[in-house]
Amino acid sequence: MRKVGKLLLGTVLAGVVATGVAVVPAAAASATTASASQAGSSWDRFERGDGRFDYRWGKKDGRFWLDFKIWDRDDDDRDYSFFDVWYKDNGRWSHYKRYKSDDFFSKHLVFGKNVDDFRVRGGYGHGNKFGWGGWHFR
Questions:
Q1: For the segment 6-52, what is each residue's pLDDT rounded down to a tens digit?
Q2: What residues contact residue 103 under an 8 Å CB cut-off, 6+ apart?
Q3: Are 18 and 25 in contact (CB under 8 A)?
Q4: Is residue 77 predicted with pLDDT exceeding 50?
Q5: Can you list the alpha helix ranges (DSSP code H) found in the chain?
Q6: Residue 39 dihedral angles phi and psi, to the nearest 5°
Q7: How far out from the chain centre does Cα 73 lie?
Q8: Over the stretch 101-122, which tens digit does the pLDDT of each residue have?
């Protein structure tokens, strides 16, 4: 009788352990997926002239957000590094804002719920004479 009891107890414990192992990874996987969708992209970098630009984006609570950093690596000249942000609303692109720096600048933006998409580009120069790099899309 003792052997049957031990065997039965061992079977029950094995079932509990197996069930726990099966449940925990599923819960962890769904938590990882949820946090990844909240976290957004990793940092991307591009350069234009003496300007260096890092950006990352994500979506939280139905709104896109954008973090970016601008470095102007030659702050002894009179040129600036420019960072343009455009957004798309109902299929139409609109200019959001142009940021500039002759040293370092960083910003966190949160777009409205009506924004469908956005794009960024970097430039380098002064006045109305600066060269733009290509577009970087979300």
A1: 544 455 445 544 444 444 444 444 444 444 445 578 999 998 888 89
A2: 71, 72, 75
A3: no
A4: yes
A5: 2-39
A6: -70, -40
A7: 24
A8: 989 999 999 999 999 999 999 9
Distance CA 83, CA 99 (A): 5
Cα end-to-end distance, the chain, whole Å = 67
For residue 79, what are its two tokens? 């040129």
Which two three-digit tokens encode residue 4?
Answer: 């049957």
Nearest to 58 by CA among 42, 73, 41: 41
pTM above 0.70, yes or no: no
Q: Which two tokens stand for residue 39?
A: 């976290």
Distance separating alpha carbons of residues 81 and 83, to the nearest angstrom: 7
Work out the number of other CB atoms within 10 angstroms of the CB of residue 27.
9
